[in-house]
Amino acid sequence: MKKKAVVLLSGGMDSAAVVAIAQEQGFEVHAMSVRYGQRHTSELEAAARVAAALGVAGHKVVAVDLRSIGGSALTDDINVPEAGAGDTIPVTYVPARNTIMLSLALGWAEVLGANDIFCGVNAVDYSGYPDCRPEFIAAFQALANLATKAGVEGAGIRVHAPLQYLSKAQIALEGQRLGVDFGLTVSCYQADMDGKACGHCDACQLRADGFTAAGMTDPTHYA
Fold first, then answer.
1. Given CB 3.0 to 4.6 Å as the disulfide criterion, which of 55, 124, 168, 186 pairs with 43?
2. Distance (Å, rounded) from C-alpha 161 to C-alpha 192?
3. Which of these, 219, 222, 164, lies nearest to 49 by C-alpha position?
4. Are 178 and 14 contacting, i.e. CB atoms less than 8 angstroms apart?
C-alpha cells in the first residue's frame, strides 16, 4: 500500500513538477489547490488539468479570502510590476500565503493519515519571497510536529521542498524527464481568464529564461 502525501498544486510549472516527483518517490498524491482571492484564477483551472493529466488520487480546492486583507498585487488593486523592478521584496509577495497554504495542507494530511507534505518553493530562481527560503520550510516542519496529533502521537510530519535548490532550467528538465506537460500550466501573475500570459512580469520572465537555458521550447500561451 502506497504512502499518502499532500502536494500543494498551484497550477504553475513548479508545483506540476513536484506532483510528478512525489509520484516517482512512490507516494499516492492528494493534490490541494487554494483559491485565495488571486486575480489570476486561471491557474486553478490549470491545476485541475495537471491533476487529471498526472492521475492524482484526489484533488481538493480550498477557499481562503486573502483578498479581504489585500496588501499584494496578486490580491489587491495594485499593478503587477515589470520583471526585475527593484531589489526589495516585490509587491507580488502575498502576506503569509505559504504559511496559510502549508497549514491547510497539514490539516488535510492529518485527516488522510499522511505524514508527508510537498510544496514547490524555490530559493534560486524566485522573486525574493521570505516564505520560499529553506529556513522557513525547516521552521514550518518543526511547527507541524509541535502542533498536531500526528506530530505528538504519530509518526511525525515531513515537509518536502524538492525544488528548493534547483534553477528554473533544472526544473524544466526534471519535469520533461518525468513526462510533465508544461503546456497545461499557468505561471503568469496576471494571466487572463483563458490562461494566456502577459510575458512581462517576474513569473513570465523566470519561466521563459528557464526554458531557454534548458534548451526547451516554452509552451506558454501568450496574450
1. 186
2. 29
3. 219
4. no
Question: Is residue 62 helix, strand or coil?
Answer: strand
- Cα 48 from Cα 33, distance rounded (Å): 9
pLDDT of residue 153: 94
Instruction: Report how far residue 206's alpha carbon sits from residue 111's, in angstroms, rounded to the nearest whole number.
Output: 36
Backbone phi and psi for residue 184, each to the nearest 5 degrees, phi listed first: -85, -15
Q: How distant, in Å, are the alpha carbons of 103, 125, 148, 163, 219 from that of 205?
A: 29, 10, 39, 18, 14
DSSP state of 222: B
pTM, to two decimals: 0.94
What sign does the CA torsion over 214, 180, 80, 161 have? negative
* Alpha helices in 87-201, H assignment, sequence order: 97-112, 134-147, 149-152, 168-177
The span from the CA of 37 to the CA of 40, in Å, is 9
Q: Which tens digit of pLDDT belongs to each residue from 20-62?
A: 999 999 999 999 999 998 877 899 999 999 999 999 999 999 9
Cell numbers 507516494 correspond to what residue? 27
* Residue for grid cell 520550510: 137
